[in-house]
Amino acid sequence: MARVRVHNFFVSLDGYSAGETITLDQPIGGAERLFARFDGRFIHGLDVMDEPITLDRALTSTWGQGIGVEIMGRGKFGPQTGEWTDEDWRGWWGDEPPFRTPVVVLTHHQRAPIHFDNGTSFHFLDATPEDALAYAQGLADGRDVRIGGGPSTVRQFLAADLIDFMHLVTVPITLGAGVSLWDGQAEVQDRFTIESATSASGVIHHFWNRTIRD
Amino acid sequence: MARVRVHNFFVSLDGYSAGETITLDQPIGGAERLFARFDGRFIHGLDVMDEPITLDRALTSTWGQGIGVEIMGRGKFGPQTGEWTDEDWRGWWGDEPPFRTPVVVLTHHQRAPIHFDNGTSFHFLDATPEDALAYAQGLADGRDVRIGGGPSTVRQFLAADLIDFMHLVTVPITLGAGVSLWDGQAEVQDRFTIESATSASGVIHHFWNRTIRD
After folding, report:
1. What are phi and psi of A96, to 5 degrees?
2. Domains (ranges, CATH) in chain A?
3. Who's near B5: CB < 8 A, 6+ residues apart?
4. Domain named Bacterial bifunctional deaminase-reductase C-terminal: which ranges (chains A, B) (predicted)?
5. Contacts of A202 in chain B (CB under 8 A)
6. What is this model's ipTM?
7. A vs B: CB pairs below 8 A
8. Chain B residue closest to A198 (CA)?
9. Which neighbouring-strand residues pair with A70?
10. How much is the average pLDDT of B24-43?
11. Is some CB atom of chain A closer than 8 A to the CB atom of B137?
């Protein structure tokens, strides 16, 4: 059965995963340091680069395995808010978005889909988490769904108990302020079986698997 | 550049990775307990089974990423020794060998290749590690080469300094006797940068990356 998964989700020691305001210069809203150790090229597998295969890299590389669609919040797609005044904006990633699958962008403002040659397409949707998930599964060809962030988006799916698996990464820095996955999520851990492992780089990887219910 | 990788290579606390004699009933030569925690279905990725995604599973699933060919010793292919008196033997795996790529089987005894519908093929070769690697790379379509074991085979490639990466797994059991990767390999660790991580299941994962030389 297809699952709903979160991968490579970075969290600071004080619990933040993004800054408050996304701008062109600050795509993580000022929390860019969370991604300082992250090499985005590693998501596509162990063979794409002649760099050491560390624990961090091996785990990063599971991001795309068996994934047929991503759901992301509008802030991950770009810095615009409100009506789409700039339809030339096609995301942060240029002509080669790394997703290589359909991507559902949650927004209250409709817009026509965007298609790229590498298999990536963006589909704009105004929907609840449940309805967005059903829509995304229709695009996933039976494969798993990744919830791509940012933290507010993951939090909504978590609150709706729609997440089967989360790979969280505690990064040993403090941010002081920002957006947290955990706001209003007291006791969320009770629904999961949790394992953690420390890597030589100083980050801690957490594997949250939703406990199967009767 | 394509690399030479070892994955999911199990080692007991006393250093053994297989028993001495392969038989039909004992494909690991009596060291089958080393594989008790190993679910072979996990090698194909995170999506193939609705089981928790643990650290062990995530790392197991990197086995096939970017691999274009495997090289294995004859004992991994089957229990026969000497001349191929039973050419009906097509490996331990039935009609669906898990490899899904060409596989080079090292043997002093020639035999015609075997092809399966799922992309697996077995090619029998009598060659030094260097020559076997060159032959395998010709079948790999530019992808990485996996050295699949058993321990004597990995040891030969290690002694020839042909291994770029090893994912070793220390299993907390003792075997008392068997075949070891380490025989005659004193100081081999000096050629590698080594990281290790303990999983909740009690195994220890080791990542050996060959240190790049000037």
Report:
1. -130, 65
2. 4-79+96-210 (3.40.430.10)
3. A46, A53, B67, B144, B145, B146, B147, B163, B164, B165, B166, B167
4. 8-195
5. none
6. 0.89
7. 92
8. B197
9. A103, A146
10. 87
11. no
